[in-house]
Amino acid sequence: MSDIHIPQTASTPSVHTDQAQGLVSMAGESYPENPFEFFQPIIEWVGDYLDIATRPLALELELVYLNTSSIRAMMDIFDRMEEAHQAGREVRVRWTYEPENERVGELAEEFKEDCTFPFVIEPRP
Question: HSE-up of 22 (CA within 13 Å, CB side)?
């Protein structure tokens, strides 16, 4: 299982995974031309990590904008984390956002409503 390092572009977030730390971080805007192609390796990495590793998994997000396809992909990631949590795994999400960007804060709240694992939403100071 290899870590993922994707640089941020105008339409895709930066993505970095760290198997040793049990961490996935994403930052930026997400409206990729081919969302399946972009998100599939990330979804697979999360699934593989949760299947293989026994350590906790943390998802650190600083996403500014997500289109509908990106929202669906994030739902797939959160669903997989929820399954793991229900099976006793320690998982958590921390989503930080600019306070002026109320829309992304509201989106994060909508995601949080469907999750029973720790899900922290923090406006940046």
Answer: 15
Closest to 49 measured CA to CA, from 12, 23, 87:
23
| DSSP H stretches of helix in the chain | 35-52, 68-86, 102-113
CA–CA distance, 32 with 94 (Å, rounded to integer): 23
Look up the pTM and report it.
Answer: 0.94
Query: What are 31's two structure tokens?
Result: 């409206």
The pLDDT tens digits for 47-61 are: 999 999 999 999 999
Encode pLDDT of 92-108 as tens digits: 999 999 999 999 999 99
Radius of gyration in angstroms for the set of CA atoms belonging to the chain, rounded to a whole number: 14
